[in-house]
Design a protein that fits this description.
Blueprint (H helix, E strand, L loop, with lengths): L1 H29 L22 E4 L2 E5 L3 E6 L6 E2 L4 E5 L4 E3 L4 E6 L6 E2 L9 E5 L4 E5 L2 H4 L7 E6 L2 E11 L4 E6 L5
Antiparallel strand pairs: 1-10, 2-9, 3-5, 3-8, 4-7, 5-6, 7-9, 10-13, 11-12, 12-13
Length: 184
């Protein structure tokens, strides 16, 4: 009989422990989840992307000649007007600007023979740098955030230039931003 009493007491204690554990679990479930709330506001989000780009002039011209150069009238960085004489050869042939712009290459010198055409190089290169376009290659995640006519800022040499996205192509992902100012 003592054995039955001890077994009954142990079973009662085990039953009480099980009931206590179930009660504690239900108590924790009924407490709910804590949630922190805040006020909803409209704000401007600015996303920046660091990448390299290619400057694309709005117009450009490569001039070629052959023979001995008798006079070079321009240097890199000079601004020229359409029809301006840029260089003269001993044969009397003149290289004249077919567009207004800035001289970006001069590969000839007075008194030397111009062999640039045989090498596929221009004697003089002119580019219209106003306005400039910058062609960028962006990752898919960056390109998804870009839209045509979207405002854009491009920083170079500690200067920031404002403009807008003028076109967007799919493959390869390229974005061209029309700059409002000329990079100098």
């Amino acid at each position: 009989m003592k054995k039955k009493t001890i077994i009954g007491a142990v079973l009662a204690i085990i039953l009480l422990v099980i009931i206590f554990i179930i009660y504690q679990n239900n108590k924790q479930k009924n407490q709910g989840v804590r949630v922190r709330t805040g006020e909803v506001k409209t704000e401007t989000i600015i996303e920046k992307a660091a990448t390299t780009g290619t400057l694309i002039p709005s117009d450009e011209q490569s001039l070629m000649g052959t023979g001995t150069v008798s006079d070079v009238k321009v240097a890199v960085g000079d601004k020229v007007e359409e029809g301006q004489v840029l260089a003269t050869y001993d044969s009397g042939v003149q290289l004249t600007a077919g567009t207004k712009g800035t001289i970006t290459e001069v590969n000839i010198k007075t008194g030397q023979v111009d062999n640039n055409a045989q090498a596929g190089k221009a004697a003089i290169h002119i580019a219209d740098l106003s306005p400039l376009k910058v062609q960028l290659k962006l990752a898919n995640s960056e390109a998804a955030a870009v839209a045509v006519n979207q405002k854009a800022e491009i920083s170079a040499n500690d200067q920031t230039y404002s403009g807008k996205v003028s076109e967007k192509t799919r493959l390869p992902l390229q974005v061209k931003a029309q700059l409002a100012q000329v990079l100098a």
